[in-house]
Amino acid sequence: MPTTSVSTPIPAGMTDAQAVAAVQNHEVMIHALAPEIISYKMLSGDPKSKAVYEVTDRKPIGQTTYKLTITNVAGGVDTLVNANPPVGTLTIAGKWRVANGKLQEDVDIDGNFVMKRMAKGNVDKTHPSQHVKLLAGVKA
User: Where is the DUF7053 domain (predicted)?
Assistant: First the structure.
């Protein structure tokens, strides 16, 4: 069972196939997931299938850098964030799937109690708007 889930209706006039294409666009995905992005670079892989990125963005507690793996799968993508904030390690695994006119994101968060609680609160608060930006193909 996931730690948390976020579900967003696909905008009117957008097909499931178009939504999958938006989700599988790694550049758009990175900008939607890291709205305060400072920089990112691909470390390995192929952005049309599976790639590992180093992402640096701003957080309320300052600048942070982490590894983000995006894997294109049927109907969406799998994401994996590996971060090492000062208070412990944090792993956030997401399954983003498009089906039946909606984008469903199931998230598993692993870390110490404080990090897990903080990350879950962040996902619950920010991911609905990130879904909207992602489906619109907007770079935040």
Answer: 5-136
